[in-house]
Structures are given as structure tokens and as C-alpha cells.
Write a structure and sequence with these properties.
Blueprint lengths: L3 H11 L5 E5 L5 H9 L4 E4 L2 H10 L5 E4 L8 H4 L5 E5 L2 H13 L4 E8 L11 H10 L8 E9 L6 H22 L8 E3 L6 H6 L4 E4 L1 H4 L5
Parallel strand pairs: 1-2, 1-8, 2-3, 3-4, 4-5, 5-6, 6-7
Helix pairs in contact: 1-2, 6-7
The structure holds pyridoxal-5'-phosphate.
């Protein structure tokens, strides 16, 4: 059986130079993260605050911890001291809270806005129109301790590759419009976080430069 670090190495060999691989370690033990870390991996993602807290405490300090799931406002304070990137900002209220907690920790927290493109109703995020309006309206500009660095999305969990491609294409199109209309001067607005174990090759064709890969690296999750 291949180890996480071997699989990461294999995946990285296939990625274009500008695509970052975030290893999604949720539900997997610290020992597996340590194996990936020993192989040089530094970007890891979790989607539960408590689990992230526990892992952050025992693992090396130079890991960049990404938060990828739905984040409740009352839990932001726990991860605010160290989180590197929050992927799924889906409301202004959440961004306000991240800003407040970042301020308390005397730092700026990088965030992505979550775009809802999938057909599943349960997935969070702005629609394309909502996100464009939100960014245009500009209330977020007053939040000096958060930095909007790009977009995140999840495609539908379907076999139909043309549908997945279409959803990533929507994300890429919106990213380009926002970049051109509101962030042309901000080099930091550059992150396109889409693509997971089953669909990252498609995501890369449609502009992704940050893929979030879990089960392909660490095996199936036991919930
Ligand atoms: C779990 C998760 C992933 C990784 O999924 P895999 O299919 O295991 O690669 C990526 N993004 C988000 C938001 C997730 O919750």
C-alpha cells in the first residue's frame, strides 16, 4: 500500500506549476498527516473546528492550516489565532466575525468567497449574482483584518463530466469578472479553489490553481 506522502508526490508530478495541492486530512489520524509532512507537504485542510484544534496543537507549527467546511460564526474565535486560509465564506456576517477575531489576534486572515454552483440544495455559498452584487456593493471594504483572496466552489457529486466542467467554468468566469471589475490592482486576489479527489483534473482545465484532495491521498474516511 502506498503512503500518503508517496501519493502526494505522484499527484504533484502531474500538476501544473501554479496549482497548489491542499491535503484534506479531516477524519484521518495525526500519524497520516505526519507521514505527508515528512514527505514535504505543508498545506492541510480540515472542516471541523474541534478536530482542527486538536491536530494543530500536536503537529508542527509550520503547517498551513486551511479551513474548508461551513464555518459557524461562534467558532471562528478558536481558529483565528493561526488559520491560514478560510475557504468557505458564505455570508457577510461570517466575514464580519472573522474580521473581529482577526483584529483581536492582531492579524489579517485570508478568505475565499464560496460560490454555489452545484445542483445539490444542501451546499452553502453565494449564487453568482449574489456574489457579484456583494462584492460590488463593497461593505466588505471596511473590514481591514480580512483579505478576500479569491473564490472556492464544489461541483455537483455526479458522473456527468460535462456538468462538472460547466460548473467549474461558471466559477472561472465569475472569478475573471470580479478580478477585472474589482480586484485588478490586488495581486492577492488570485486563488481559485476548486477540484477534489474525483474531479480535480477537470477543475484544473477550468482555471483552478488550488485543489483540495482528501480520500485519494489518505484513503476513504470513516465517519
Ligand atoms: C472533504 C472535502 C474535500 C476533499 O474531498 P475528497 O473527495 O476526499 O478529495 C474537498 N473540499 C471540501 C470542501 C471538503 O469538505
Amino acid at each position: 500500500m502506498k503512503t500518503p506522502s508517496q501519493i502526494i508526490k505522484e499527484i504533484k508530478q502531474t500538476l501544473p506549476a501554479d496549482v497548489k495541492l491542499v491535503a484534506v486530512s479531516k477524519f484521518h489520524p495525526v500519524s497520516m498527516i505526519e507521514d505527508a509532512y515528512a514527505g514535504g507537504q505543508r498545506l492541510f485542510a480540515e472542516n471541523h473546528v474541534q478536530e482542527l484544534q486538536q491536530k494543530h496543537e500536536v503537529l508542527p507549527n509550520d503547517i498551513e492550516w486551511h479551513f474548508i467546511g461551513h464555518l459557524q460564526t461562534n467558532k471562528v474565535k478558536y481558529i483565528a489565532p493561526y488559520v491560514h486560509l478560510i475557504h468557505a465564506v458564505d455570508t457577510h456576517k461570517l466575514l464580519v466575525e472573522i474580521n473581529k477575531q482577526a483584529q483581536k489576534n492582531n492579524r489579517v486572515i485570508d478568505c475565499l468567497l464560496e460560490l454555489h454552483v452545484a445542483q445539490e440544495e444542501t451546499k452553502f455559498g453565494f449564487s453568482a449574482d449574489e456574489m457579484y452584487d456583494y462584492v460590488r456593493q463593497g461593505e466588505w471594504r471596511q473590514l481591514e483584518n480580512v483579505r478576500i483572496c479569491g473564490l472556492m466552489c464544489m461541483a455537483s457529486n455526479v458522473e456527468d463530466e460535462s456538468q462538472i466542467a460547466n460548473e467549474f467554468q461558471q466559477a472561472e468566469n465569475l472569478f475573471k469578472r470580479l478580478k477585472q471589475d474589482f480586484f485588478a490592482q490586488e495581486d492577492s486576489f488570485s486563488i481559485r479553489s476548486w477540484g477534489m479527489s474525483d474531479d480535480y483534473p477537470i477543475a484544473i482545465k477550468y482555471g483552478s490553481n488550488m485543489i483540495r484532495v482528501g480520500s485519494r491521498i489518505f484513503g476513504p474516511r470513516v465517519y
